[in-house]
Amino acid sequence: MLRDVxxxxxxxxGQITDAITGSKPRNLPQITVxxxxxxxxxxxxxxxxxxxxxxxxxxxxTFALAPPQDIGIRIIVAAQGxxxxxxxxxxxxxxxxxxxxxxxxxxxxxxxxxxxxxPLVQDFAxxxxxxxxxxxxxxxxxxAIPISGANVQITAPAALGPVQTDADxxxxxxxxxxxxxxxxSITAAGRDPLNTDVRLDFRQPINQGGFALExx
Length: 216
What we know:
It contains 1 helix and 19 strands.
């Protein structure tokens, strides 16, 4: 028996990762799909995001593109704690050309009109939102005594600062560069300079760090 059937196909698929860890994002991403030309939502595309960060965009092979023509699809990926990412993927007329395929479904021979040149692959690496550094600088020989006027700055992977500690030794610096770790430099009159690597915790918008300087 020969009959036409309607199916859904994966148009675009890929992996969404945390740009710092390379693993799945801490929170499940959400995907918005628009037509790139005018930012109109595409009703013929459905999205699915799996727990591991994999995603697929399903499309109806019968959607109105007759004759097939190039179409740009803007994929917008957002997740709590991350900077939104987007990418335009172009499905060419050749990608969208349809072919009839004969399939054996439970003993019946059916034909399915399918899109010939998909799925395309587009991965996303989401950058965590930047964090702020806060802390206190004190004397190494007596941590209860703060050091006021100390200079605190980030020197790598990008320079930021310096800022000075207040009368109680406290400082606020940021937003810090988005990186797995940064190099912090702390200097004060009469004290040995301190250069230390600090690993950032992007689960917290504010990272706390206290430092003690030795007398010079």
